[in-house]
Amino acid sequence: MTSTPPATVTTEEDVPQSEGSKLKTFLSILRKFMGVSDLAAVRFSLPSQLLEPTPNLEYWNYLDNPSAFAAIGTSDEPLDRMLEILRFWFTKDLKYVKGKPCKPYNSCLGEFFRCNWEAEDNAPPIATGNLSVNGTKSGLSSAASSVKSAKIDPRTASNVSVVQTPPNPAGPTVRISYLTEQTSHHPPVSAFYVTCPEKGLHARGYDQISAKFTGTAIKVSPGEHNLGIFVTLERRDNETYQLTHPAAHLGGLLRGALSVTVGDVAYITCTRTKLKAILNYVEEGWLGRAQNKVEGVIFKYDPDNDDKVRIKDVPDSDVVARLGGGWKDKIVFTLGPKPVESHPVDKQTTIIDLNPLAVAPKTIPPSEQQAENESLKLWDGVTQAIMSKQYSKATSVKVELEEKQREKARERERTNEPFVPLFFTQATDKGGKPDLTEKGREVLARAQKGEWDLQGVI
């Protein structure tokens, strides 16, 4: 397959732009792609002034609040574990709740990123056995309400923070390690793997998006290889949950202030417990204002006849719990089939309150122990130039890097040698669950020990 050079649009260099000016320039570029079915497949190259100095593989992770991930699987009750999964779900994208979306660098084939989180192990237990169907029993109204997170310490204007040394939280911590690799270029796909051995947890999946410009917003949907996040509870006989992503809209292009809204349906299923959650996101109200509301239902389902795709499809007799709230604010649940709003506020139990939370910082390898194709080192020249507002230099370094990648692609085509991922066994997988190679397992095992040296691995 011939590698198609990305479209490059040039603008006046080394002239700092306001956020509004950036978006106007971005909008003028997007208009050139009206009618293109998938912007993500085109992978056009933006001027450096419009980019956040953040690699794509660093930006796309689901551990904005790692404490919520570490708390999955603690309960012996299936419903409680589903609620633990949901608590994680609503915290995984704090970057959009607490700040602005951004356009990171496009990933290069074979590029990889790794990091750790030192997660506070202090999540309140979820115990629905102590609740009544008609309301909350004494002393348990906030049992699921809070998962702490480290305060944000921004490295750049984006909401992804990185630290070179572990944070110093007050309470006990568990270590979560993360590895992701760009495994395909056409289409652009990356594989990721998250592990927390101390809690017997791992998560994995493929990240791929499909994007289309509608004229006023960009609709972002999961690509064909992105079947969601697969979370496995190793100590529960490998009980696995599939969490599918809803489509979202990146708007505010005309107003000069980017924002993310969601108006779609997401599903969380567990074939072992035979519980399923449907989450319906409401994008806009009757005045056209984003409500950021979500309503949901947890119900008993038949994995062999999974035909319930809308909340209204679920009979009351199968409903175990209902949810409601704002996905940028606070989510509550009630037991039984009655709608959440029919219960008094003091009889609703909070799953998570996002208001006090912030994006947790990562622990990354020291620069001298990073490989040449590791995200932060690979893009360091571009990042440093953007940070110092030397946009012409940033563009020059970026173009040089992208040309090297195209040359590698031409060489593989000439020798008829397909690209083989280093850390994952397959570039894509129809089941959506990537497997690690021995090298990938070794990298994560070393990360768990706080060791970043790659000698003997690559």
From TrEMBL:
Biased composition (Basic and acidic residues) is annotated at 404-416
Please give the residue ranges the record annotates as the region Disordered.
Answer: 404-436
PROSITE patterns recorded: OSBP (PS01013)
**Family matches, as InterPro entries:** OSBP_sf, Oxysterol-bd, Oxysterol-bd_CS
One GO cellular component term, please give it: membrane
GO MF annotations, alphabetized: sterol binding
Pfam families, per this entry? Oxysterol_BP (PF01237)
Name the PANTHER family for this protein: OXYSTEROL-BINDING PROTEIN-LIKE PROTEIN 1 (PTHR10972:SF212), OXYSTEROL-BINDING PROTEIN-RELATED (PTHR10972)
The UniProt entry's sequence similarity note says: Belongs to the OSBP family.
**Under which name does UniProt file this protein?**
Oxysterol-binding protein-like protein 1
- Give the lineage: Eukaryota, Fungi, Dikarya, Ascomycota, Pezizomycotina
